[in-house]
């Protein structure tokens, strides 16, 4: 049976449209970091590299290699951790050129360094992706977090952030970082 994160991990990947408290456990990801406007070509190239690696792992059995512990699954969604440069934080308006980010795609538990190395080899052999060597593989753990589903344009995100800030205050919680994670569903 195919593992579908949309069904098995609803708490992480299908949050409510109002703030809620959750614990985000440690998972392994293909990750690539950068700075600048996500509407620029380089950002799209980084997304393409991540998906190339994620699908290289997913398709290994069709290419004759079945990793230990492999199970059929749906590729996880793109995620991003966002922050601003110091000058970006001091500005009254959002300058997307001042964004700092790490975008990533989670990998199933069976993915080992050996599998990662094979995925890199497969992608390198089939595609000429100049940013491939900028990708890392490793764990990410957010721990206790406040999340909510944002439906709408990116320009409307401040309203969702305001709801989360109010939730944090009402529940006597504390914001420990200005970074935030987005999951693109």
From TrEMBL:
Classification via Gene3D superfamilies: Regulatory factor, effector binding domain
Ranges for domain GyrI-like small molecule binding: 18-185
Transmembrane region(s): none
Upper classification of the organism: Bacteria, Bacillati, Bacillota, Clostridia, Eubacteriales
InterPro entries listed in its UniProt record: GyrI-like (IPR029442), GyrI-like_CCH_Lin2189-like (IPR008319), Reg_factor_effector_dom_sf (IPR011256)
Descriptive protein name: GyrI-like small molecule binding domain-containing protein
Organism per entry: Clostridium cellulovorans (strain ATCC 35296 / DSM 3052 / OCM 3 / 743B)
């Amino acid at each position: 049976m195919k593992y579908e994160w949309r069904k098995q991990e609803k708490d992480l990947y299908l949050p409510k449209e109002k703030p809620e408290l959750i614990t985000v456990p440690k998972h392994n990801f293909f990750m690539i970091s950068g700075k600048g406007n996500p509407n620029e070509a380089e950002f799209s190239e980084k997304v393409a590299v991540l998906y190339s690696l994620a699908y290289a792992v997913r398709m290994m059995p069709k290419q004759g290699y079945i990793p230990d512990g492999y199970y059929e699954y749906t590729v996880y969604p793109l995620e991003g951790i966002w922050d601003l440069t110091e000058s970006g934080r001091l500005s009254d308006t959002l300058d997307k050129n001042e964004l700092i980010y790490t975008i990533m795609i989670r990998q199933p538990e069976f993915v080992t360094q050996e599998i990662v190395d094979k995925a890199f080899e497969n992608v390198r052999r089939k595609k000429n992706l100049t940013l491939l060597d900028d990708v890392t593989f490793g764990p990410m753990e957010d721990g206790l977090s406040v999340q909510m589903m944002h439906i709408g344009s990116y320009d409307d995100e401040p309203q969702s952030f305001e709801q989360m800030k109010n939730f944090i205050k009402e529940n006597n919680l504390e914001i420990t970082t200005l970074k935030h994670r987005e999951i693109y569903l």
